[in-house]
Amino acid sequence: MPRTVYVLNGPNLNLLGTREPEKYGRATLADVETLCRERAARHGFEVVFRQSNHEGALIDSIQEAGHEGAAAIVINPAGYSHTSVALLDAVLASAVPVIEVHITNIHAREHFRHRSFISPAARGVLCGFGIEGYGLAIDAAAALFAPAS
Ligand code: CA2
């Protein structure tokens, strides 16, 4: 059974907790990483945790997750959600289930944020639960491997 979850974070998420706390909260990206590692450990998953401001680096990580036979990819594509056909293509080409996460409820924000290019190719999407969305996404990844009841 695959044991690694890749948690990928897109552009500007390195600023979490340092700017716009009214929108994105006070937790830092390091706090998100701790949350992910703790939650993953409950399910016996290892975590590869990355953030990049570069579209190509995110695509490389998606492809790497495929080559490594990862259990799941949890990705907050951030601004690239709303622009990137290249990220969509990487997700479409990936044999790994992709769970898309947004800290905010993108549907309650500006119209241009309502469409994510990634969502049609995602196994599921979580938005609006703050950074807990990452934990919920890891729970969802574990549920994909749970025996049917
Ligand atoms: O709600 C989310 O998680 C978003 O993916 C965040 C993106 C935004 O473009 C999406 O529409 C929704 C923005 C990430 C920028 O993160 C910052 C964090 C703190 C301060 C400034 C930016």
Q: How would you describe this structure in keywords?
A:
149 residues, alpha/beta, 5-stranded parallel sheet, 17% strand, binds ligand CA2
Question: How would you describe this structure to a colleague?
Answer:
The chain has 149 residues and is α/β, with parallel strands linked by helices. The chain is 36% helix and 17% strand. The protein contains five helices and five strands, in the order βααβαβαββα. It has helices at residues 21-24, 29-42, 55-67, 85-93, 132-145; strands at 4-9, 46-51, 72-76, 98-102, 124-127. Strands 2-1-3-4-5 form a five-stranded parallel sheet, with helices on both faces. Helix 4 links the parallel strand 3 (72-76) and strand 4 (98-102). Helix 3 (55-67) runs parallel beside helix 4 (85-93). The longest helix has 14 residues, at 29-42. The radius of gyration is 14 Å and the shape is globular. Ligand CA2 is lined by residues 12-13, 15-16, 19-20, 24, 76, 78-79, 81, 102-104, 106, 113.
Layout of SSEs?
Elements (H helix, E strand, L loop, with lengths): L3 E6 L11 H4 L4 H14 L3 E6 L3 H13 L4 E5 L8 H9 L4 E5 L21 E4 L4 H14 L4
Parallel strand pairs: 1-2, 1-3, 3-4, 4-5
The structure holds ligand CA2.
